[in-house]
Design goal:
By secondary structure, the protein is of the alpha+beta class. It has one domain (2-107): Double Stranded RNA Binding Domain (2-Layer Sandwich), CATH 3.30.160.20. Helix content is 41%, strand content 12%. The chain is built from 5 helices and 3 strands. It has helices at 2-5, 15-19, 58-67, 88-107, 120-140; strands spanning 23-27, 43-49, 77-82. The longest helix has 21 residues, at 120-140. It starts with a helix and ends in a 5-residue tail after the last helix.
Length: 145
Amino acid sequence: MSEEKQQPASSPPSVRDLAKEVEFKTSRSSGAGGQHVNKVNSKVILLFDIANSRVLSPDQKVTLTQRLASRISRDALLAIQVQETRSQTANKEIALQKFEELIQKAFRKRKVRKATKPTKSATKERLKRKKIVSEKKKWRKPPEG
């Protein structure tokens, strides 16, 4: 019954197919690198347009936009920025790996939480502690009269 409430995640599309729809932008990276860093565009930004993807089905687009909402820009683009190495090609590879992990994670089925009741002994212990605290506070009050 609780499984029906959870929307099933559709199977992930092939990342190889999605990689064909990916666009890369490069720019100058910040950080160490000496004089060379000012000449080379080593930072890579991977852009993926979920809404206009031909590989994704409408259900998959909805799943991705819901689960990756915090990473999607106002232009409906999924952006992954990498500037870990000084090499543009290495950064592209890292960006593609991160993209693959994100897609796989977005389509992974989440475990359904089972509601549980506290044990009798836990309830008994909690009530006992409440009673002790209540007594302690009762003795702090000034006498009535």
